[in-house]
Amino acid sequence: MSLTPLSKLPNFDPKKVPVLGVDRQLPAVAAQHMAPVALKHRFNASPYWEPEIHREPPISSRQVLPAAVLMPLVLRAELMVLLTQRTAHLAHHSGQIAFPGGKVDADDANATEAALREAEEEVGLQRAFVQVLGTLAPYTTGSAFEVTPVVALVDAGFKLQLNPGEVADVFEVPLSFLMNPANHRRHEYWSEGVRRTWFSMPYQDEAVERFIWGATAGMLRNFYRFLMA
Question: What are the two backbone dihedrals, phi and then psi, of residue 39, each rounded to the nearest 5 degrees?
């Protein structure tokens, strides 16, 4: 079975898909649990937890390929999540907001090495600034990538250099905003006889709305579940 990616559907705009609900009834992650020392402890002594989202409805019957993304938590006055805006011409998830990352290459020792390499290649984030905390459960995208999120603390002071072939922009969002379900909106869309659901977490960045949705929002939702376990 092969389905059309949502981003490739004529006139599809995720911002215009109705909101089914907002999870205001769920508690936000407490500030003390998002402190760097608390995050280190959480990954060193990880509790049992279940990701809320394991996989998206497949849009392709091809074999699933391993991939990895870096979830960079920048050490500022409050922790900030570094995100990218993908260029519009890419074959997968074009124009969407994403974490730095990509396919695991044969030369990569593991998913963590792949995420670090991709972050260097995409945005110029040097490994000297990055302290890896651990990984979350894999998230399988509709485009048939099994993505391992690699969570890391990032020292401030880095200077980014964007790869214009892959990244159109880069920005930061407070972790506290993303770990508050009052900012998690649920959507539903039927296409080609298949029900597709996703989260969105729109963030107003000065005069620009950063519409975080799809796989990126799904992985952030799983991170919320990990921190609340």
Answer: -65, -40
Position 133, amino acid: L
Q: Find all residues with CB under 8 Å of 89, minimum gap 6, and list them.
A: none
Domains of the chain: 21-228 (3.90.79.10)
Distance CA 203, CA 190 (A): 25
Of 180, 173, 153, 172, the closest CA to residue 73 belongs to 153
SS3 state at 37? helix
Beta strands 208-210 and 203-205: pairing type?
A: antiparallel
For the stretch 171-206, pLDDT in tens is: 999 999 999 999 999 999 887 778 889 999 999 988
Q: Return d(Cα 104, Cα 106) in angstroms, integer.
A: 7
Q: Which of 158, 115, 114, 151 has its CA nearest to residue 135? A: 151
Structure tokens that stand for 95 in this block:
């124009």
Tokens 């998830």 sit on residue: 93
